[in-house]
Design brief:
By secondary structure, the chain is an alpha+beta fold. It has one domain (about 10-145). The chain is built from 4 helices and 7 strands, in the order ββαβββαββαα. The strands form 2 sheets. Strands 2-3-4-5-6 form a 5-stranded mixed beta sheet. The protein has a two-stranded antiparallel sheet with strand order 1-7. It is extended. The chain starts with 11 loop residues before the first strand and ends with a helix.
Length: about 170
């Protein structure tokens, strides 16, 4: 079993390597990392996962991360439970800074990158990309050919509140 503090996919970039000039790195998950990520995200398979990541400092304390990733995976169809192939290409940005900056009243809009507190002397760019993949995955994957036929209306359930429903119907009359 994995240590919860150790991500399945990790690439640490020491903060000392990040300056005003962009630091760029291409990362790709190996087969073991993809297998562990597939388990973490409840995927049947994660066949490919790679990202191009760029880090740069705006000032001495703030680091910007811009990344583009691509993933090919297989999920279980929510309707038929059959395997469904999927593919995602996405971009995102994050702002890393001292934790005390997070405590300030910062208004963040959807257009602004999310704030991540710096912990330690490195940024785990692979874990950042993995978290964004988890947010981009379809919540309810569905095979385009899946059809649910003969949907029957749900039978009313007799329970402790059934009599209250009858009272409500009487008051509406």
């Amino acid at each position: 079993m994995n240590n919860p503090a150790t991500p399945e996919f990790s690439r640490l970039v020491p903060l000392e390597r990040v300056g005003a000039e962009p630091y760029r790195q291409r990362i790709e998950a190996n087969p073991q990392e993809r297998e562990r990520l597939a388990q973490r995200f409840d995927l049947l398979a994660l066949d490919f996962f790679a990202a191009d990541v760029e880090l740069h400092r705006q000032n001495g304390k703030t680091v910007f991360l811009n990344a583009a990733f691509h993933a090919e995976f297989e999920q279980c169809c929510g309707a038929t439970l059959e395997p469904v192939r999927g593919e995602i290409s996405d971009r995102f940005s994050l702002v890393y800074g001292p934790a005390e900056e997070e405590e300030q009243d910062i208004t963040v809009s959807e257009d602004e990158p999310a704030f991540e507190p710096l912990a330690g002397d490195a940024i785990d760019i692979a874990e950042a990309v993995a978290q964004e993949l988890s947010l981009a995955l379809p919540e309810f994957p569905r095979d385009p050919n899946a059809a649910i036929d003969d949907l029957l209306p749900a039978e009313p359930i007799e329970g402790p509140f059934t009599s209250l429903g009858r009272l409500r119907k009487r008051s509406e009359c």
